[in-house]
Amino acid sequence: MATAAELKKELQRVVDALMEEDDDDDDFDNLEKAIEICLALQKNPPPEFNCPISGVLMKHPVVLASGQTYEEQIIQQWLKEGHQTCPLTNQLLPHTALIPNLSIKKMINNWCTLHRFEIPIHDDETEDYSANANAEHLIELLEKLSSSSSSTSDRADAAKELRLLTKRFSSFRALFGETKDAIPRLLSPILIQNAYSDSDLRNDLVAIVLNISTHESSKKRIVAGENCPLAISFLVESLRDENVKTRSNAAAAISSLSTLDSNKHSISKSGAITALIELIEEGHPFALRDASLAILNLCTVLENREIVVREGAVMAIVEKIIDCVLVDEMLEILAMLSSHERAIEEIGECGVIFCLFGVLGESVSEKSTENCVSIIYNLCFSDRRKVMEISEVENAYEILSRVAKSGTSRAKRKANGILERMNRFAFARLKQ
Asked: Is the dihedral of CA 155, 170, 59, 128 positive or negative?
């Protein structure tokens, strides 16, 4: 999930676009995006999303004759008790008809999606879904999904129920790893083919894969199973989907799957790295973190670092650091890549040294301090010309000297190594 700083930065970009755009359609799109980001900046649901009676986030908001919006079940109970007035305004109601408030419902769902915030469900609904969270029902749903005789609406209903069950119940997620052929049927060629032509089905299917990928027994079966190439290809294609929620979920699924070492080679061979770097370059705050974590997981394999560097990750990552976007994650990736010869050359050419010192001068985490110093260390020992540039900044601000005294043991060791290198370089220049 995007941080407040990232959301504010994206909001500024959208506002700037609103001020510059002449196209009314673009203005409307940017306005909607600005509203979504403003809502996302709130840690708790906006008060207008809560039912005025219960104070709980609404799932089925409806409009009363007074114009006020309430949770459907709550206001129905109020009316059943014989009340003929609006609870908020005390206005006498001309009728008791309830109209679904689709606009506020959409806003609530968008807010919940941005925050990965689960909409509360009523106890009776929980019991109904819990009763269906079993292997027999899983097979029934998979049959509806994968059967060529299923109607589009039946397939859609099955997908949505699978998405809900896999999100809400860990025991149901575990069934995919325990039930024979469950994953191959979920990722069958016919279903994936249908998903390519149905955006809603595609969005649900990607979310289901993400949900079950969090269960250890399913990680290997998704990547190394019967339909592995097709499944991974589907996730990679979904990284380029028009819907940012689908892109984000696909990146999160690949990130989850790539935590298993045996999956890293298969994922990298699928072209996932290129698509993930494209997401980093795009910089959408709701997909960027998951794409970065996926790259970080994949880069623990040396061969994958070569691919990441070749596909242009260094410049994309440096730009995000300069723009102060996901700095901790970007520094961790860059530190990992900085041991690669071509990567350190590109880092040096980006003119990022002053920026790295700037990060060190701020109140950053110990991990980010270590990563910053590690990158500067590799720059210092890979190119003598960079020693002078590093020395100039250090002599002006003495930031590495402070790290050498108060940093972690790893940061101290690296910082002292840089300072010693600088001193030897200075001494050698004096002798010339």
From this structure: positive
